[in-house]
Amino acid sequence: MNQEESLYGQKINEIAQRLHQISKDVESIINDKEMSLQTLRKNNLGYMMAVNNYKKCRSELSKINPPVSVQQEHADFMAAIQMFIAGTELMYRGVCLCSFTINEELIKEGGALEQQGKIHAEWLAEAIAKKLATS
User: Fold this and answer.
1) Helices (H), ranges, the chain
2) Which candidate in 24, 35, 94, 131 could, as Cys together with 103 as Cys, close a disulfide (CB 3.0–4.6 Å)?
3) In angstroms, rounded to a whole number, what is the distance separating the alpha carbons of residues 97 and 79?
4) What is the rounded CA–CA span in Å between residue 122 and residue 2?
5) Which of the residue ranges 1-15, 66-80, 82-96 would you say has the lowest mean pLDDT?
6) Residues 68-95 as b or e (16 or more Cβ within 10 Å = b)
């Protein structure tokens, strides 16, 4: 593995770790069943912050030129991050502060999409690491 591949691998690992932490934060919001207005506001803000943090990860990743050997995996990793974003945006929309309600269907759909992104991102980060290690 050359220096460019090593630096790329380190950056992917950093982004994957941040995605994992953001996803854990989202999971704790999903598991929070309290229905007070204060909790709904906190959860709504938490979803919005998670979306912004996922977008920062996507932006960082888009600025990286991947080694030729992992260009497809890089593109797929970008798509996985988009799943995180889309799923969390659905969950954000599922918390309605104006009517003091939670749309469980949107939360469930968003959670499933976010989880799918997580599975893909973890698999892709490992696939990239393996490819770089053998090049």
Assistant:
1) 3-31, 37-62, 71-93, 104-134
2) 94
3) 30
4) 23
5) 1-15
6) eebeebbebbbebbebbbbbbbbbbebb
Q: Can you tell me which residue has the tokens 């709504």?
A: 44
Pairing of strands 101-102, 95-96: antiparallel
Question: Are 124 and 20 a contacting pair, CB within 8 Å?
Answer: no
Contacts of 97 (CB under 8 A, 6+ apart): 37, 40, 41, 44
- Closest listed residue to residue 68, CA positions, set 124, 3, 132: 132
What global pTM score does this model have? Answer: 0.90
Share of the chain above pLDDT 70, in %: 100
Tokens, residue 38: 């204060």
